[in-house]
Amino acid sequence: MNSLSIVLPVHNEKDNLNELVRSWSASLRFHKLDYEFVIVEDGSTDGTKELIIELEKKYPIVNLSQNQKRGYGLAVLDGIYKSTKEYILCTDSDNQIKVHSLINNLNNFPKENTFLIGYRNPRKDPFNRIIYSKLFKLFHNLLFNSNLKDPSCPFFLGSKQTYLRLEKKKLSQMREGFWWGFVGVCKKEKLNFKEVPIDHFKRKSGEAGYKLGDLFSIIFRNVLGLIKIKFFR
User: Fold this and answer.
1) In 3-state terms, what secondary structure has residue 75?
2) How far apart are alpha carbons 220 and 206 in whole angstroms?
3) What confidence tens digit (pLDDT) does each residue in 14-49 have?
């Protein structure tokens, strides 16, 4: 059985994180998987830091808490580089993706130079976020022609060796839309994807979308980031 690091970027997820870690750990232990949670806590102010310290007493956790907010993309990258297992699953800590999406793919662990990625089927996010993603996907396809159904889905599984093939500087171009940029960098490196359907659930607690006032600056940064990935070394 393969060993697995589960990278979880976390910001103010106290109400979701305990259930996520408990349910994932119970299932992974049942399937006798060698695993660790790499929890990249990112400047939370809701008690998440204190919760992680308590969870460390019960579960195999690499705690990467810090007071200064680094942003989603850098949080994912920090988690990847601090992982210690053979394979890495990057997913979100909002508990919208359940452990059975991984269990259903235990026989699909990808070979070297390939990532297994999910597509949310169906996606249970706010309407405005889904529309933004659909429109942005048109632009993304013009640049990279990935032919993926859901290139921003936060469910990426690959060997650590394959992750480390990707240049950290290029991956750092995307602050919010990290997985859009990740797919773009993979395409430039001629890596392969295997896309599988995963169940997606409504968020029970916390923010699921962007504030309207922030949307235009986020779009601008993401467009600029993809252009840099596509056209610059």
Assistant:
1) helix
2) 25
3) 999 999 999 999 999 999 999 999 999 999 999 999
Q: How far apart are CA 87 and CA 162, in angstroms?
A: 9
- Could you tell me the CA-to-CA distances from 24 to 17, 52, 182, 189 in Å, in that order? 11, 15, 25, 32
Sorting pLDDT into bands at 50, 70 and 90, what band is 209? Answer: low
pTM greater than the 0.85 cutoff: yes
> Angle formed by the axes of helices 212-231 and 127-144, to 10°?
10
Exposure string (b/e) for 72-83, b if CB count within 10 Å is 16 or more? bbbbbbbbbeeb
The angle subtended at Cα 221 by Cα 184 and Cα 151, nearest 5°, is: 30
CA distances from 165 to 20, 76, 136, 192 (A): 29, 15, 26, 13
Contact (CB, 8 A) for 5 and 159: no
Cα–Cα–Cα angle for 130, 38, 100, rounded to 5 degrees: 55
With a cut of 80, say whether residue 206 has pLDDT above it.
no
Residue 26 in tokens: 């119970």
Domains parsed from the chain with CATH numbers: 3-231 (3.90.550.10)
Name the 3-class secondary structure at 49.
Answer: helix
Token pair recorded at residue 116: 């297994």
